[in-house]
Amino acid sequence: MSRAWGRVPALVLAMVAVVGLPGCATIPRTGPVISGDVINDDPLEGVFQLAPEGPKTGQSPVEVVRGFLAASAGYSDDHAVARSFLSPERRLAWRPDTSVTVFRSLDTLSTRQLPEDDDDSQATASVTPSATAGADAGAAGAAGAAPGREVAEVVVRAPSIAHIDSSGRYRVIPPGSKAEPRYFGLVKSGGQWRINTLNDGILITRNDFNVTFKPYSVYFPDAGGDYLVPDTHWFASAPGSPELPTALVRALLEGPPDWLADAVATSVPPGTEMAVSAVVVSNGIATVDLTRNARLADDRQRQLMLAQLQTTLGQLRTISSVRITVERVSYNIPSESGPRPVVDPAVGGAAVGIDTKGRMVRIGVDGNEVVKGLEDLDSLNAVYGLASPGVSYDGGWFAALSADRSRLLLSEAGSGKTTQLPGSGFTAPSFDTRGWLWTADASGVRAVDIAQAASDDDRVLVEADWLKDYQVEALRVSRDGTRAVLAITDNGEPHVFLTGIVRDESGRPVRLTQPEGIVPDLVSVRDVAWVDEKHLAVLGRRLPSAANANDETVSAGVDRPWIVEIGGTIQPIDAVAGAETITVGDGASTLIVGTEEGTQGRSRPSWAKISSARWPAFPG
Q: Collapsing DSSP states into helix, strand and coil, what is residue 354?
């Protein structure tokens, strides 16, 4: 496998410098839940349309480019204000929707003026019209201007923190990435400077991005049709915008990202497209008209297709139901073709831990409760020492590691027996919803059918060639069973990977897909956990210059939890002294941390000890 970021697509790094020619802790009954800050506002609330200013008479080339950058955040009337900074020849050719590059603020712009013969000038470069997609489209300079026409050139650089591609997928740009200039060629038009050549896409400040863009999920069914799995896309439209339903449907028809594609199914037959240019919404009903390939779907696929569209478009308050047609003809969808797939499955149940006597306990409001029926497992504490427990979603199966991580111990409550699996360097156990127990050790990623754990035939070494030479520090399977998050180190360099789980027809794990790297600016990583279907919790440290959701400045010298939006922003949580492990129940407010002294829960503005039990773990 290539190294950690070899799999991740190259980011367009837009950076800006300007050049022109002269001129109190609480715990609910279901387990430890500590009051805390809301991680993210409702993504469907608080979307505003910016009202940027157009060009002013007598502005210099530098001022025109700055004005254009500020106006690019205004999406009204297809960027009408931003287009007013362009020459008549370029106003309709510029394609702002090809990409978005986010930088911290206009204050980070550095400006300098270059003479025509400066080595950095691109004025003599050949120009591809900006209507052409691609990173080199619209290579700047004022090339293409009529002979004798007065020209100028501006180059822009600024620290970039994120890139959003034409599909709306968000990627964090690591601190220290190479600054690539972006050039603007200007000409005089009607006596005023106007931009004549430029790259497609937009540059936007963090603040403007936060106001204009919001994340939306596009859903895909898992292979069995039991769950719907989200893929996050960012769009610059208010919930009531007529363009947003169309953008979401186009993203759904485009399919899942590469890393997820083999782990989920598609209910939409290949080659199916929108038969008309837009989704029509009337009286709360969204009509999605598809091409004739949609008729190739069988009954179950049609049911899942409707579920995908209803769940995806149902995020918009203007849509209450979805109607599918094929080239304006009704589309039959049997109502009894299967159960509706689950979205964002709940955890439920209390966290477990290992108490000071080496027993498996549930951590609750009134203290630790020893789990009954695990006497055989508990007795092994005297032999091996118990650590890093786990519990299945139904609360009937329990697992733990030996203190030296050389044994994985598995027991069903009340069975009176414990299955022992030998290995080396096991990670904490993770149960999935399909009856498999996951871990990683020196041999690779391993999965065990818990109902047949005593049989070697039901112990799977899951194919994951890309993990060769990596040390897995933690592995957690998502609650829908289609994804896994892994914390790894590569010669001491930390990474967090997201990968899809490919299973055979019986649900048996087969392999992990080529991964997607997230949190590219880690200094260390200790543990990972799922927060919900769209967020992860990562325990570790990031570079001091790393970009946070609200640009908070945090200490890089201590491990802390981070809430990571998959395909989105990263938010720090208050540091926990001595943090070793992290676990989350239903939502970020349930986040708890394990230390050598016990279990810590949120007690704003800091943390409070809620149990003496170590290694807390919610079901899963």
A: strand
- Cα 440 from Cα 499, distance rounded (Å): 14
**Residues 269-281: b if buried by 16+ CB within 10 A, e if exposed:** beebeebeebbeb
Phi, psi angles (nearest 5°) of residue 481: 75, 10
pTM: 0.85
pLDDT, tens only, 127-136 = 233 333 333 3
The pLDDT confidence band at residue 338, using thresholds 50, 70 and 90, is low
- Contact yes or no for 541/519 (Cβ under 8 A): no
By mean pLDDT, which of 16-25, 214-223, 516-525 is the weakest?
16-25
Q: Which two three-digit tokens encode residue 321?
A: 């139901």
The residue count of the chain comes to 620
> Confidence band (pLDDT; 50, 70, 90) for 100?
very high
Cα torsion angle, 240, 242, 245, 250, sign:
negative
The yes-or-no verdict on residue 225 having pLDDT over 80 is yes
For 285, residues 6+ apart whose C-beta sits below 8 A from its C-beta are 319, 320, 321, 322, 323
- Taking Cα atoms as reference points, which of 560, 563, 612 lies closest to residue 590? 563
Segment 403-409 long-range contacts (CB within 8 Å, at least 24 positions apart): 405/441, 408/437, 408/439, 408/448, 409/377, 409/380, 409/384
Judged by DSSP in three states, 80 sits in helix
CA 299 to chain centre: 32
Phi-psi region of 118 (alpha: psi -120 to 50; beta: other; left: phi over 0): beta
Distance CA 198, CA 251 (A): 27
- Measured CA to CA, the distance from residue 469 to residue 522 in angstroms comes to 19
